[in-house]
Each structure stands twice: as structure tokens, then as C-alpha cells.
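[job 4471] stage=fold_predict status=RUNNING
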Amino acid sequence: MSTREKLLAEESALLEDIIHQLSRSGTLEEREETRERQQDRLDELDAEVAQLADEHHDQFFAALHSFFQVVEQVDDAKKRVHAIRNGLVQCKALLQCKRDTIRSLWVENMEYKEMLRLLERVEEIKHVPEQIVGYMQSKHHVHAAQLLLETTRTLESESFEHIAALHDMRRQLRKELETMHEILIEELHGHLYLKAGVVKTMDGAEGEPGASLDHAVSMEEDLDVNPTDNSLRYLELTVIALGILKRLPDTVATIKQRLKTELSRIVEKTIVHALDSLLVADVAPRPGAHSNPALEPRRLFRLVTQIYDQMMAVMRGHVHILRCLRQLPDGMRALGLYDGSSGVRTYSEREVWRAIQLEVALVLCQYLDIGDDHDQLLQVFAAGGAWVGPSPSLSHPLASPTKGGG
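[job 4471] inference complete, writing C-alpha cells
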């Protein structure tokens, strides 16, 4: 039942009650008294209603004012929604008309962004030669090789190959790419042979017998460390740099080609140094001693010992280089070095050791004047018949002179 129906029902019940009271009154005076009571009650209700109306008059008008404001805001919102709707319809129509223009502007914007990116990259490439020179001077060959190879590939990409301003830079880096491996090969040989006496193992021990050379090859190069402080690590990094440049075949070929020459040069330098020491000492020969002081047993033993020490240092370097070549990842192995079955095609420790034996044998034949057996002995060493491999620790077999050594 609604509120209106409830009010009508209450009014009807009140009217019936009044009629019932009036009909029960017997006389006119009783009816008059009943009417007066009802009238008094009605007056009281009117007074209460007037009092309530006075009390809530301000709140009513405030609510009424708020209601009119809400109505006005709703009307204003309807107008704005209508205006927005009309604006969206117009925008839709304009977008349909300007779609090609907007698309061309977007493409142009992307082209400008790409041009800015290329200009920033060109600015970085301008400083690449200086960075490469800095890396080479500090002996950080891996960083130099990586930077040179990446920059060369960038300049030969489609984005940069048509930029005429980079023609000289591209030609310079290509020339650098063709010559850097020669510099690295010379560095490798210089450190392997010229510094043969100071070859260090990975734990820092200088040529200690039994020092371990077997370790995993690390591809990381620390710019805060001088690579030449550790000779074996320096050889390892140089081999990695040559692998980055895809020049390991040339490196192996050069090592094999120059092996005998470099060993002979070490022997000659050692002999010259020993003779200079004799001239400086200028010691008169003892009675009964050999007429040539250089051929006295003790001095000859020292000479052979020095040569052997130099050769062992070279052997350590070659062993480490061979292990580096075998441990390089597939992505670092140049074409022609890996066939998937036999591993790395390179020289062997046997070849190096045979060349060392041949050089030592040649020195002994010359100094001991073996005679007719000279050529025969050299042929045996050259053919590999006298192969005696070094011990796993590359230890010194000449720990002390023999009794006949004087």
C-alpha cells in the first residue's frame, strides 16, 4: 500500500469515528460538546503544524534551492554532453578526411627519430679509432677486437653503407681490421719467445715446476688489470682476440712457420749472453782445463741448463695456447679449425718438443764436436725417432751436474 492510500485510509477512519461519536450523542448539547472537543483538537493540530512549518521553513527553502541548483547543473551537463557528442562527430568526420595526411606525418616522425638515432651512432663511431688505439696501447686486445669488429659490421649494414660522410671511416676501419691480426700475432710471438724466461702460470708462479696450466678459458677481460702482469693470461687473451677477428688459421700457420726460427734465435741469444759473461769474468783457464773456456764441462752444463730453462718456458706457453685453442667455444672457432669430429686442427705439443730437442741436439753437436755421427744424430731428431716427451709438470731434468761435470 502506498503512502497516499495510507493517508486516505486514516482520514476515512477519523471521519467515521467522528460520525459515530456524534450519532451516539443523545442530545444537541452532547453533540455540541463533542464538536467543540474535536474543534479544539483540530486547533491544537493546526498550531502544531504551524509551529513545525516555522521551525523547518529555512531548511525547506535551502533544500528547495539545492534542488533547483541540481536541476540547473543537470541541464548544463546535458548541454555539454550534447556539445561533446557533436564535437566527436565532427572529429570523426575530419579524421576520415585527413587519414592519409596523419599517416604521412606519423611516418615522417618515425623517419626523423631514426635519423636522430643514426646521427648519435655516427657521433659514437667518430671516437672508435681513438678507443681502439687506447685499448691496443693498454694491451686490452679483446676489447679492441670486439669494438673494431662490431663497428665494422655496423658501417657495412644497410643503415650506414649509403652515408658518404662515413666512407673514409669505413675504409680506415677495414684497413685496421686487415692489419690488427698481424699486430696481435707479433704480440703473441713476442710474449711467447722474447719473454720466455718470465712466463707465469695462472696462479702467478714464475715457471715453477709442476705449476698447473689446466683451467677453463675465461672470455672476460678486466680493463682495470694490466694483462701483461700474467703472461699466460696475456697469451690467452691474445688468442681470444685473434679468434674474434677470425684469424686463428693465420695464427696457427705463422706459429708453425716461425717455430724453428724463434727457437734458434733463443739459442743464439743464450749463447751470446754466456760468452759475454765469460768475457766479463775474464778468468784464466785452470791447469788441465779445456783450451776453450766455453767448452769446460761446468760452463757447458750451465749453458745447456739456461737453454733448457728458456725452452721449458716456451713449451709452457705453447701448451697453454693449444689448450686455449681447444677450449674456445664453437662460435669463436674460425672456419677451417673445427671439423666436428677431430676437434681443432692445429699443431701439437710433439711438434714443439721435437723442434726443441733438435735445437738442443744441434747445440750439443756443435760444442761437443761429435764428428761423423753429427748428421746422423740430427736426422734422427728431425725424423722424430728420438721423441722423449716432457713430464706432465714440465719439471727440470737437469737438477744437478753429473760427477763428470767438474
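[job 4471] summary: The two ends are 138 Å apart (CA to CA).
[job 4471] exit 0
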